[in-house]
Amino acid sequence: MLRILLINDTAKKVGRLKNALTEAGFEVIDESGLTIDLPERVEAVRPDVILIDTESPSRDVMEQVVLVSRDQPRPIVMFTDEHDPGVMRQAIQSGVSAYIVEGIHAQRLQPILDVAMARFESDQALRAQLQARDAQLAERKRIELAKGLLMKMKSCDEEQAYTLMRRQAMSRQQKLAQVAEQIIAMHDMLGS
Amino acid sequence: MNEHEISRSHPPEKPVLNIGFMALTDAASVIVAATQGFAEKHGLTLNLQRQASWATLRDKLLSGELDAAHSLYGLIYGVQLGLGGAPATDMAVLMGLNQNGQSINLSPALQAAGVSTGSALAQRAHQPGAKLTFAQTFPTGTHAMWLNYWLASQGIHPLNDVDSVVVPPPQMLAHLKAMRIDGFCVGEPWCAQAVNEQMGCTLITSQAIWPDHPEKVLGCTREFAEQYPNSARALIMAVLEASRFIDESEENQRSTAQLLSGSEYVDAPLSAIQPRFLGQYQDGLGHAWQDAHPLRFHAGGAVNQPYLSDGMWFMTQFRRWGLLRDDPDYLAIARQVQQLDLYRQAAEALGIDIPSDMRRSQLLDGQVWDGSDPAAYARSFALHALADAPLSAQQESR
C-alpha cells in the first residue's frame, strides 16, 4: 500500500484530502509542523508520495530533501511518464504538486491525483484571462494620447513625457495605463 | 536594424507572455517593464505572475504555464543539469537582470554573544557542541552558493561544520525569532528588514564576496527561445529598456522602490526596500555606508550581457560542492544556455554596448575567475566536497 505524506501548511487545506484518500485505501500521514522540520519528517515517515499545495513556499524545502537523498530512492516532482505538458499544466493548475519516490510507477499515482485534483478544482479562483489583443491596442492608444496631451501641457519632448508619467505611476504603485487615463480625464475636465 | 525596424519586420510570434517573478527587490526590471509601458512598443503584453516558491516557478516554466521568469542563475543551471526535483531540461538565459544586493545576516543571539566577524564565527563554528544552522533559499541557488563560498573563505566547511537548510525568504524572520536558525543568506528586502527590526546584523554583503557578481537572470526553456525567437528578443528589449530607465536617475530608482513595495509586487514596507535599493546600507552593528557596488540593473549593458563566464561559474561551484560528481563540458553547456545571439540583436537594436562574453573577477579570497579553465578552478579551493579530487590537488591546497 502506498504511504502518502500530506504537507498541510497553507490556507488551502491539503489536510482535507486525508479522509478522501483514506477512504480510497491509502495510508495517509498529515504533516502541519514548521517548514524547517520538513526534511526530518520526510526522513522519519519515508513516504512513497508527498502531496503539497503548489502555492506553498515550502516547495523549496522539498527541493533540499530531493537533493540530499539522491543516493537513496528519492522523491521527484511528478511530471507524468509521458512528460505531456498538457497533463502537467492540468496538475499544476489544480493546485497540488506531487512528489513520487523513484521506482514507483506513475500509474499507481493516478488515483491519488484524481482524488486530489477533484477536491481542489472547486477551490480554484477564476484564473486571470489573457488580455485580449484588442484591449492591448486600445491601452497603447490611450497612453499615446495622454503622452501627447502632457507634451503640450508641459512643453516637453516625448521621452520627458514618458518619464514623468512613469514616475507618477510608480510612485502610486500604478500601471502606466492608469496614469494615462487620469491625465486624459483631467484634460477633459479642464477643457483644452 | 534599429528597434522600430526589428519589431516591425520580426513581429513576436506570441504577443502575450506570462512572466513569473518572486517577491524580491531584484525583480524590479521585470516588474517595471511589464507595468510601465516598455513592452507594448515591441508588440508584447506581459502578464506578471508572482510565485510562492522557486520550485513552482520552475515547474511552471517547464510546463509552459510561464513563458519566462525572474530566476536564480543557479536554478536555470540546476535544471539544465538535472539537479533537483525536475527532470533535466534544456534551459536558456536570455539576459542578466541584476548584479549585487544580497546579504548574509546573523541572529541576535550570535550578535549578543559577540560573534560579529568572520573569524569569531569560525571560532564559534569549530567549538564542540551543537552545529550552527544557516538558511538559504534554494539548494542550487545563488544564495546557497554565496553562503558556501563565504563560509569556506573563513575556514568554515559549509557541508561539514554547519547545518545548511532551506527556508523560504518571507519566513526567514519567523525562523530567526523562533531561534531555529543562526544565520541566513537571502535577497532584499529580507536582510534589511531583519536589521530594521533589530533581529540581528548583516555580516557581509554579497558584493563584498564578489563585486558585481551575477545574480538573477531572465530565464526560459530552450524550447521557448527556439520556438518564439522574436518574442524572446522583444522581451529582452523591453526589459533592457526598463533596466536602463531604473539606473538612469536616483529619482527613477526612488519611484521604482515605491512601485515595488506595492502589495501586488514585493509587498513590504518602503523603509525595508528603498535604502539598500539606493545603495544605502546599515548593518545593525553601528556601521552605515554608501555601497560602491550596490544592486544594479543596467550599467550601460555591463549587467545584462549573459556572460559565458558567469554561467560557467555556477557549474564550477556545483562541482566544487559535490552536486556534480564529474566535470560537465562547462563551455559547451554555457554556450547552449546563454542566448548570446538573441541578446546581441536586442542590445544592438537599442544601441547598447555589448561587452566581451567572458569577464574577469577577483573574489574576496583572492581567487581570480575569468572562465579560462573551469575544471581547474573548481579544484582550486582548500575547502570543497569533490569526491574524486586527485590527492595531489588536495595536498597542494593545504
What does this structure look like?
The complex is a heterodimer of chains A (about 190) and B (about 400). Chain A has about 190 residues and is an alpha/beta fold. Chain A has 2 domains: about 5-120, D-Maltodextrin-Binding Protein, domain 2; about 135-190, Orthogonal Bundle (Arc Repressor Mutant, subunit A), CATH 1.10.10. Chain A is built from 8 helices and 5 strands; from the N terminus they run E-H-E-H-E-H-E-H-E-H-H-H-H. Chain A has a 5-stranded mixed sheet, sandwiched between helices. In chain A, strand 1 (about 5), helix 1 and strand 2 form a beta-alpha-beta unit. Residues about 120-130 of chain A have low confidence and may be disordered. Chain B has 2 domains: about 5-100 and about 215-350, Periplasmic binding protein-like II (D-Maltodextrin-Binding Protein, domain 2, 3-Layer(aba) Sandwich), CATH 3.40.190; about 100-210, Periplasmic binding protein-like II (D-Maltodextrin-Binding Protein, domain 2, 3-Layer(aba) Sandwich). Chain B has 19 helices and 14 strands. Chain B has helices at about 5-10, 30-35, 55-65, 75-80, 110, 120-125, 140-155, 170-175, 190-195, 205-210, 220-225, 230-250, 250-260, 270-275, 310-320, 330-335, 340-350, 375-380, 390-395, and strands at about 15-20, 45-50, 70, 90-95, 100-105, 130-135, 160-165, 185, 200-205, 215-220, 280, 290, 360, 370. Chain B has a 5-stranded mixed sheet with strand order 2-1-3-10-4, sandwiched between helices. Chain B has a 5-stranded mixed sheet with strand order 7-6-8-5-9, with helices on both faces. A two-stranded antiparallel ribbon of chain B has the order 11-12. Chain B: One of its GO terms (cellular component) is endomembrane system. Chain B: It comes from Pseudomonas peli. Chain B: Its main location: membrane.
